[in-house]
Each structure stands twice: as C-alpha cells, then as structure tokens.
Amino acid sequence: MINNLKVKNFKCFKEQPFTLAPLTIFCGANSAGKSTAIQAILSVVQNIDNIEKGSMNTYGRLFNFGKVADLFSHSADNSDFEIKIDDISIKANVTVKEKQEYVLQLNAEANVNTKFEHDFVYLCAERFGPRASYDVKRSSDKLDIGIYGEFALSEYSKIEGLPCANPEFAKFICSHFIDPAKLDEQVFFTNVLVREAMKKIYPTFNMKVSEAENIDKVYHLYESSSGKDFVRPNNAGFGISYTLPIIIAAAAIKPGGMMIVENPEVHLHPHAQSQLIGILSALSQSGVQVIIETHSDHIVNGVRVFAKENSIDINSNIIYSISEIDGDRCAKEIRIDSDGNFTDLDVGFFDQINNDLMKLF
C-alpha cells in the first residue's frame, strides 16, 4: 500500500503532497488536476525497469503524456522534478533540450520493484462499451484486466471456477445467503462472487462466458430480464459493460494489490452508483488499496453510507477536493467519519444541487 505521494513540478502541481488511505477519492472541477496524482503513480508503474536504469519514458502501457514538456509543470520556478512514493524518490533536473524529448534522465537509479510487486489494476475512464467478443490475453503470469477492460472476460474465463482470491471480500459480498455460523468455513468461488456483486448493481444479472479457441476470442451473453433466454451485450445497455470489468477486477485482485478506477459511475443510474462504491469500499477494507477519480456526488455519498453502516474508521478513507485558486492548484483533504459525516467541506465540493435549489426556491 502507498501511504504517501509527493509530486514536484509534475503537470499542474508545483509541489503537492498527498496522504493515501485504503480508499482515496479525487474529485473537483474539469481540468482542475484530479487525474494528476493518479498519473504520477501510473508513470512510475509503467517505468519500473527504466527507473532502475536511471531514466523514465513519457509513454507506456498505462498512459502517454507526450513529450517531457507535457509532463513538466508549465509554471515551474526551477528545473527540479520529483515523484516520491513513500521512501522512494525519483528526481530529475529538466533541461530546455530535454523538454522536447520523450525520455527523462533521472538523477539516480531507484528500486521500485518491491513497491509494486503485488497485483495492479488501472481502469481508465474510456472503458470498452458493449462488444460482440474480446481478445484472449495470452500471457498469464500477472493479473491484466487491460486499461479499457479489454481483457476482463479473458481473465474471468481463467478463474471463474477457482476459489476467490480475497476470501474476506467474498464474505462481505456473499454473506446474505450464507448461514453466519458457517461463513468463516465457506469457500467462495469467483463466478459466484462476480455474480453476487453484479446483482447488487443489476438485480437480474447472470451471464455465460465462452471461448472461441480457434480465433483467440472470448464472448459472453447476459440473461434476459425474463430469465428465459440470453441476450447479446449490445442489447443490454452501456452501464453493464462499463461496470463488469470493475467487478471482475475486484474479484480477481489479491490482497496487497492496488486498484485505480477513473469515473466508475459512467453510464450508471444513481442507485447503481451507490451500490458500486459500496462494493469498492468493501474491497478497500479487505486488503486492496482502492483509488478513484469521480465527478459523482452519489459515489461520495455512497462512501458515507458504507462508513456509517459498517462503522468504518476515519483513517480508512480520504477525499481530495482539487481546485484552482489564482493559477495554483489546491488539494483540500476531507475525510468521512464512522457516522458518515464529512470532517470538512470545500467551495464547489458537490454543492451544485443546493445551488440549483436555491435558484428554484
């Protein structure tokens, strides 16, 4: 787990420390800088081998920044560049010539392998919508959902009949149909966990997954609302296709791992949003660090409900409200206590409903 992140002259931040919790949420206005902290983590993860050799690329499998000039703060007062993750510091002095390059030369080598040796999942906001089929992921050494969720079904087909990777998470999701006295000895399987988690969001959910081995494709069908037949994904709406990779990732990731999801609320009804964040909150209480970027007050309020219903400790979550003040970025730290109350508020922090209602009444 990452406890502390600091960036210096990284994109919109001149210098900004972040404390991270089991569940960390970034919110704020468009282009305020919500994604910047997440991108700092991504830049390190996709450059592990390069950093150990003293350099860092601006491109990779998780995110492409462009040139060094696109990575380096446009309002920097000096040439110093730093990403610090706990006790690992990645530093550089950026030259004018180097800004036009795609590789940043670091001041020293750093060993970041041990920090990210566990499962790592990043799902970007631009996830795949309904598809007739998906590619099979050939390599099987590490969990790989794909940044668009493109390998989620492929991973699921490998593990659907195996015991869950995270029994504590499975207990929370599946406890409603298990005798409490037998809960600790119950073995939960991945297909059951995915089904029950999805049913919290889509009560009639059921699916069957098949692999077309000769063309290296995997495809799935959803059970119709009548329960009498199955339908193609494109006949079931966008929300279910956007949500399924998140749930498969949550079911597949092992304790000690990290899961980052941008805009989990996309294409979801408010009730479904609240249910989804309840699932991700439970995951964060089961040994997986969860980081979310969101525009939705239903996501934030869903965390409040989860905290109150489960008496969650105030240190288990952090919300950052990112704003721009006179050209500088400000990150306001807000927490949720065990009663579901905010420890602080911020201007523009999900107050649009109240602002609109004041105009109406």
Question: What features would you describe in this structure?
Answer:
The chain contains 10 helices and 16 strands. The N and C termini lie far apart (47 Å). With 361 residues, it is of the alpha/beta class. The strands form 4 sheets. It has a 6-stranded mixed β-sheet with strand order 8-13-14-3-15-16, with helices on both faces. A 4-stranded antiparallel β-sheet has the order 2-1-5-6, with helices on one face. Strands 9, 10, 11 and 12 form a 4-stranded antiparallel β-sheet that branches. Helix content is 28%, strand content 24%. It folds into 2 domains: 1-118 and 258-361, Rossmann fold, CATH 3.40.50; 126-255, no CATH class. α4 (152-159) packs across α7. It has helices at 34-45, 48-51, 68-71, 152-159, 167-174, 190-201, 238-252, 270-284, 297-310, 352-360; strands at residues 4-10, 13-19, 23-28, 55-57, 80-85, 88-93, 103-105, 120-123, 134-135, 207-212, 217-223, 230-231, 258-262, 289-293, 317-325, 328-334. The model has no long low-confidence stretch (mean pLDDT 89).
Unreliable residue stretches: none
Report the CATH superfamily of the largest domain: P-loop containing nucleotide triphosphate hydrolases
Percent of residues in β-strands: 15-25%
**Physical arrangement of strands within the biggest beta sheet:** 8-13-14-3-15-16
At CATH level 2, the architecture of the largest domain is 3-Layer(aba) Sandwich
Instruction: Please outline the major beta sheet.
Output: 6 strands, mixed
Structural class: alpha/beta
- Overall 3D form: globular
Number of domains: 2
Helical proportion, percent range? 25-40%
Q: In the CATH hierarchy, what is the class of the largest domain? A: Alpha Beta
Would you tell me which CATH topology of the largest domain applies? Rossmann fold
Rg estimate, integer Å: 21 Å
Number of strands: 16
Which sequence of SSEs, written as H and E, runs from N to C? EEEHHEHEEEEEHHHEEEHEHEHEEH
Query: What's the overall average pLDDT, rounded?
Result: 89
- Helix count equals 10
Report the end-to-end length measured between terminal Cα atoms.
Answer: 47 Å
